[in-house]
Design goal:
The complex is a heterotrimer of chains A (290), B (250) and C (339). Chain A has helices at residues 2-30, 37-54, 59-85, 89-109, 136-158, 160-170, 172-177, 182-204, 212-229, 234-254, 260-274, 283-288, and strands spanning 126-129, 132-135. Chain A is mainly α. The relative contact order of chain A is 0.19. Chain A has twelve helices and two strands; from the N terminus they run H-H-H-H-E-E-H-H-H-H-H-H-H-H. A two-stranded antiparallel sheet of chain A has the order 1-2. By secondary structure, chain B is of the alpha/beta class. Chain B has helices at 44-52, 74-80, 102-106, 118-131, 150-163, 180-195, 207-213, 231-236, 238-245; strands spanning 6-15, 18-28, 33-37, 59-64, 67-68, 82-84, 168-172, 199-203, 216-221, 224-229. Chain B is globular, with a radius of gyration of 18 Å. Chain C has a domain at 54-258. Chain C has a two-stranded antiparallel ribbon. Chain C starts with a strand and ends with a strand. Chains B and C meet through helix 2 and helix 3 of B and helix 8 and helix 9 of C. The complex binds adenosine-5'-diphosphate and magnesium ion.
C-alpha cells in the first residue's frame, strides 16, 4: 500500500511536471502565457499517430517529426498572432486560449474521437519495484521528466542563450542593449515550449488513449502546476508537481477517485489565496518595487 | 517634549539579502519639516515606502500619533493622514488632469467632506490644480495626463497629496524633473503648508530648496543613517561630505 | 521630398450639428442621434411580439441571447476593475443552484426565489473570490477557470444538490413572451445602470484600479474592498441569468457550470468591444444567433467561434461597436503628406 502510493505518486507527479514544463518555460523566458498548450499537446499526439499509422513511418521518426512540427506550429502562432498583441496580457491569453480550443475542436469535428487513436508503448514489459508493478513506459516518463527538468534548469541558469533569454524576461530594455532581439527570442521560447509540450505528449499519451478531453485537462494542469510553482522557477515547478501528484494519489486512495479533481483544484485555489506569487515565485517582490 | 507625531524605530528592510534600509530610527514632532538626503540607492525611497506601507519591513516599528502602524496596509495609513508623493510619477494617464484628483477626493479620508455629486469634486479639483500652478483659464487642467510635460505631472502628484488633506506629507524628490521656475512657484506653497502646521518629510537632492523648508535633516548612506541634525550642521559633517557631497561643490 | 497619402478622419457635419441641444431643432439631426439606438432597442423590444410569425425556436434563441448578454455585461464590469474572468459560469451556476434549492425544498415561487438567488448568489461569489482578489492577470484567470469545474466536481463527489442528476421539476416561468420581457427589462436595466455607474466617480475608482492600482492605494482607497464590490455588482446580472434560466428550464444541474457560459460571454464582449457595455450587448445578439445557425456543423461551430475570437483580439481589438460608431460619425479621406 505505502509503496504503491510512493511509486504511483511519483509517476503522477512527473506526469504533471512534464505537462507543465513547456508552458512554464515559455512564460519564464518571454512572459508569453501560452494558453494553447492543451491544443498543442493533442496536436503532437495526433501528428505522431498519423505519421505512424497512416504514413507508416518508424515510431521514432514519427515521434521526432511530431515534436518538430509542434515546435514549428508554436513559432507560427507567435509570428502570426502573438507578435501583434505582445505585452497585452489579456489579448495574449484570449488569443492563445482560442487557438488551443480551435485545434481541439477541429480534431473532434474531424472525428478523432474513437478508441483506435492511441500510441503504442516504447517498450513492452514491466518491472517490480518495492512490490509494486510498474511498466516500462511509466519508467520512461519518469526518466524523461527528470532529465528535462534538470536540463532546463541548467539551460536557463548556466548557458549563454538561456541566461540571455532570462535577461529579456527580466528587463527587455537591457537585453536590447546587449543585442538580444526580443521578438526573435520570444518566438524561440514559444517554439521550444511547444516542442516540450509535444515531448510530454508523445511520452505520456501511450499510457492511455488520445482523447480530446485530455487536451482540456492538460491546459488546466499545465497552467495550474506552473502558476502554483511560482512561474519561472523550475524548482518551484517540481515541488508543485510533487505536491499535486501525491495529493491526487492520496485522495484517490483514501477518499475515492471522484475526489481527485476537487482536492486538486482546491489546493490550487488555496495556495494562490495564501501566496499570490505561487510557492517559489518572486513576482511580488518585483512588483513591490516602487 | 511633546508627543511625536511619527516614531520610526530600528526600521530595516532587506531585498533578498541586500539591505536597503538598516536600523533607522528617528522621531518627528508635529509641525516639523524633516529633510532626508543621501546618494542614489541609499534607501531613501525604501524608507518612504516603509513609512507609508508600500513595502513591509523586515524588522522595526513605525508609530503614528502613538499608534503602531507597522502592519497597517498602505490605504489605511492614508486614512490616518499620511500622504506621499512618488518619485516615479504614475498618474492615471488616460484621464484629464483634473479627473486625476477625483479618486483621492472620493477616498474615505476626504470623501464625505467634499460632497456627494461629482460636480462638486470637479470644482475642488480645479481649485487644487490652480494652487499647484495649473493655469485655470487655460486648457491645461483638461488635457489628458499622458500629454502633460513632466513638470506638470510632478505638480499633479503634489496636488494629489494635498487633496488628501494630510497631517504628515511625505515628498519623494518632488523637485527632480521640475524646471527652475516651476520649483520657484511650488516652493512658497510648501512653505505655506508647513506654516499651516502640516508635518513634512522631504526627500530631496536640491539642497538649497530643501533647507528653505526643512528645520532638521538626516543623511542616509547604504541604508544607514550617518548623520542627523540641523541642515547646516549636517552638511558640514565630514562623513557626509565624503559620502554624498564629495563631487559636488555645495 | 516625397508626397504620400494617408487617411484622415473627420467628423461628419451632422455629428457636430447634433452635438448639443440644437439637435432638437431638426428632424434630420434628431433622427441621426436617435435612429441607431431606437433601432436596437426597438428591435429587441419588438422581437417577442413576433411569436406566431417566427418559429418558437427563435424565441428561445432570443432568450439565450439575453442570457449571454447579461453574462457579457457582467464580464465587462469585472474587466473594468481589471479582473479578467474565464469563468462567468460560476456565477451562472451558483445563481441557478440557489434558486433550484429554494424552489425544490421550500417550494417558494420564482418571483421570490429568483431575487433571493440573485442577491445571495452575487454575495456568495464575491465572498468566495475575496481571498483571490489580490491576484491579477493569468493568476486570476486561472482561478476563475478552475472554480466552475471545482463546483461541478464537488457536486459530483458529494452527491449534494441532486448530484449528477441535478434538480428537476422546478416551478416553471409563465409563458415565453412574458419571460422574454422580464429578462429584456432586466437586461436594459443592467445596461443603463452599468453605464451610469462606470461614468460616475465611483466608476472612476474602478477604472483607476484597473489602470494604476498603486495610485488608487496612495489615494487612501482599499482596492480589495472595491474589487469585492465590483464582483458583487457584476455578479448580480449573472446570478440572475442563472436563476432565471433554471426556472425557465425547470431544471438545474452540473451543466449550469458548463464552459459555454464562460466562453460565450467572453467572446461576445471581445467581438462587440471591451469597455463599452453596448459592445457586450451587440456581441451577444450577433453571436448567439449565428452560433444557432451553425449548430448543424457540430463542433466546427466552436472552431469558427474561436477563429472569430482570435481575429478580433488580434486584428480589431476595438470591437465591432467602436468600429461601427466611428464609421457612423466620421468619414475618411486621403490627405497628402509631404515628407
Ligand atoms: N523592490 C525592490 N526589490 C529589490 N531591490 C530594491 C527594491 N527597491 C529598492 N531596492 C534596492 O534598494 C536600494 C535602495 O533603493 P532606494 O530606496 O530606491 O534608494 P534611493 O531612493 O535613495 O535612491 C537600492 O539598491 C535598490 O536597488
Ligand atoms: Mg529614490
Amino acid at each position: 500500500m505505502f509503496a504503491s502510493i510512493l511509486v504511483n505518486g511519483l509517476v503522477n507527479s512527473v506526469i504533471l511536471i512534464l505537462t507543465a514544463l513547456g508552458f512554464s518555460l515559455t512564460f519564464g523566458l518571454s512572459r508569453v502565457a501560452n494558453f494553447a498548450v492543451g491544443g498543442l499537446y493533442l496536436f503532437a499526439g495526433f501528428a505522431a499517430w498519423i505519421f505512424l499509422r497512416i504514413l507508416g513511418l518508424p515510431y521514432a521518426v514519427a515521434i521526432l517529426l511530431a515534436i518538430i512540427l509542434t515546435g514549428i506550429l508554436g513559432a507560427i502562432i507567435y509570428q502570426v498572432l502573438l507578435v501583434r498583441v505582445r505585452g497585452i496580457e489579456l489579448s495574449e491569453v484570449i488569443a492563445t486560449f482560442a487557438v488551443g480550443v480551435a485545434i481541439l475542436e477541429t480534431f473532434r469535428w474531424a472525428g478523432f474521437v474513437t478508441y483506435e487513436f492511441n500510441l503504442p508503448s516504447f517498450f513492452k514489459g514491466r518491472l517490480e519495484i518495492l512490490g509494486t508493478v510498474i511498466d516500462y513506459q511509466r519508467l520512461i516518463v519518469i526518466g524523461v521528466g527528470l532529465f528535462l527538468a534538470v536540463a532546463l534548469w541548467w539551460f536557463t541558469h548556466h548557458t549563454k542563450i538561456g541566461l540571455g533569454l532570462r535577461g529579456i524576461a527580466q528587463d527587455e530594455h537591457t537585453a536590447l542593449t546587449l543585442g538580444i532581439e526580443s521578438d526573435w527570442a520570444a518566438m524561440l521560447s514559444v517554439a521550444i515550449g511547444s516542442a516540450l509540450t509535444a515531448v510530454a505528449a508523445v511520452v505520456i499519451l501511450p499510457l492511455g488513449i488520445i482523447s480530446i478531453n485530455v487536451g482540456y485537462e492538460v491546459l488546466l494542469l499545465a497552467i495550474a502546476v506552473s502558476v502554483l510553482g511560482g512561474l519561472e522557477s523550475t524548482v518551484g515547478l517540481v515541488i508543485a508537481g510533487l505536491i499535486l501528484g501525491y495529493a491526487q494519489v492520496l485522495t484517490a486512495n483514501f477518499l475515492g477517485p471522484q475526489w481527485m479533481l476537487v482536492v486538486y483544484l482546491a489546493a490550487i485555489v488555496t495556495v494562490l489565496a495564501v501566496r499570490p506569487s505561487g510557492l517559489l515565485g518572486r513576482f511580488k517582490e518585483i512588483e513591490e518595487r516602487v | 517634549m511633546a508627543n511625536p507625531i511619527l516614531q520610526v524605530d530600528h526600521l530595516t528592510k532587506r531585498f533578498g539579502g541586500i539591505g536597503a534600509v538598516y536600523r533607522i530610527s528617528f522621531d518627528l514632532q508635529p509641525g516639523e519639516a524633516l529633510g532626508i538626503i543621501g546618494p542614489n540607492g541609499s534607501g531613501k525611497t525604501t524608507l518612504v515606502n516603509l513609512i507609508t506601507g508600500f513595502v513591509k519591513p523586515t524588522a522595526g516599528r513605525v508609530t503614528f500619533r502613538g499608534r503602531e502602524i507597522t502592519n497597517l496596509p498602505a490605504y489605511a495609513r492614508v486614512e490616518l493622514g499620511i500622504a506621499r508623493s512618488f518619485q516615479m510619477v504614475r498618474p492615471f494617464y488616460n484621464l484629464p488632469a483634473f479627473k486625476n484628483l477625483i479618486i483621492p477626493l472620493f477616498s474615505p479620508r476626504v470623501g464625505k467632506r467634499v460632497g456627494g455629486k461629482s460636480g462638486n469634486r470637479d470644482e475642488v479639483a480645479m481649485h487644487l490644480l490652480e494652487e499647484v500652478g495649473f493655469e485655470r483659464d487655460s486648457q491645461v487642467p483638461y488635457k489628458v495626463a499622458s500629454s502633460l510635460p513632466h513638470g506638470y505631472l510632478k505638480r499633479l502628484e503634489l496636488a494629489r497629496c494635498l487633496a488628501l488633506e494630510p497631517e504628515l506629507l511625505i515628498l519623494d524628490e518632488l523637485f527632480s524633473g521640475m524646471s527652475m521656475s516651476e520649483v520657484a512657484s511650488v516652493l512658497p506653497l510648501i512653505e505655506k503648508i508647513r506654516e499651516q502646521g502640516t508635518t513634512i518629510i522631504m526627500v530631496e537632492h536640491r539642497l538649497r530648496e530643501l533647507f528653505r523648508i526643512a528645520n532638521r535633516a538626516i543623511v542616509l548612506n547604504f541604508g544607514e543613517k550617518i548623520a542627523e541634525g540641523k541642515p547646516e550642521e549636517v552638511i558640514a559633517d565630514e562623513q557626509v561630505r565624503k559620502a554624498y557631497l564629495g563631487s559636488e561643490d555645495a | 521630398m516625397t508626397i504620400t497619402f494617408r487617411k484622415e478622419r473627420l467628423d461628419r457635419g451632422i455629428k457636430a450639428r447634433s452635438a448639443d441641444i440644437y439637435a432638437l431643432a431638426s428632424w434630420r439631426e434628431l433622427a441621426y442621434l436617435l435612429a441607431p439606438r431606437m433601432l436596437l432597442i426597438g428591435g429587441v423590444l419588438a422581437f417577442p411580439l413576433l411569436r406566431g410569425l417566427v418559429d418558437a425556436y427563435w424565441l428561445r434563441v432570443m432568450l439565450m441571447a439575453c442570457t449571454i448578454a447579461l453574462l457579457a455585461l457582467s464580464w465587462d464590469l469585472m474587466a473594468s476593475v481589471g479582473l479578467v474572468s474565464l469563468g462567468q459560469a460560476m456565477f451562472f451556476g451558483i445563481g441557478g443552484y440557489i434558486t433550484g434549492y429554494l424552489s425544490s425544498t421550500l417550494k417558494w415561487p420564482p418571483f421570490i426565489t429568483i431575487p433571493i438567488a440573485t442577491v445571495a448568489g452575487a454575495l456568495l461569489c464575491a465572498t468566495l473570490l475575496y481571498p483571490v482578489l489580490r491576484l491579477r492577470g493569468i493568476y486570476f484567470a486561472l482561478i476563475t477557470l478552475s472554480l466552475p469545474q471545482l463546483f461541478e466536481r464537488i457536486i459530483e463527489a458529494t452527491k449534494i444538490l441532486g448530484g449528477t442528476d441535478g434538480m428537476s421539476g422546478l416551478t416553471p416561468l409563465p409563458d415565453i413572451t412574458i419571460s422574454l420581457y422580464v429578462i429584456i427589462a432586466v437586461l436594459f436595466a443592467t445596461f443603463f445602470g452599468f453605464r451610469r455607474l462606470i461614468d460616475s466617480d465611483y466608476g472612476l475608482v474602478f477604472k483607476g484600479i484597473r489602470d494604476n492600482d498603486r495610485s488608487v492605494i496612495a489615494a487612501g482607497i482599499n482596492i480589495y474592498w472595491y474589487k469585492a464590490q465590483a464582483v458583487f455588482i457584476a455578479g448580480l446580472p449573472a446570478t440572475f441569468a442563472g436563476a432565471f434560466m433554471t426556472h425557465y428550464n425547470q431544471f438545474v444541474g452540473m451543466s449550469s457550470f458548463a464552459a459555454d457560459y464562460s466562453v460565450l460571454p467572453l467572446t461576445s464582449t471581445v467581438v462587440g468591444g471591451i469597455g463599452v457595455f453596448a459592445g457586450a450587448l451587440l456581441g451577444a445578439f450577433l453571436l448567439v444567433p449565428i452560433s444557432e445557425v451553425l449548430r448543424a456543423y457540430g463542433t466546427l461551430r466552436v472552431v469558427i467561434y474561436c477563429i472569430a475570437l482570435v481575429v478580433f483580439v488580434v486584428g480589431r481589438p476595438e470591437g465591432i461597436f467602436r468600429y461601427a460608431q466611428r464609421k457612423y460619425h466620421q468619414f475618411e479621406r486621403p490627405v497628402a503628406v509631404e515628407e
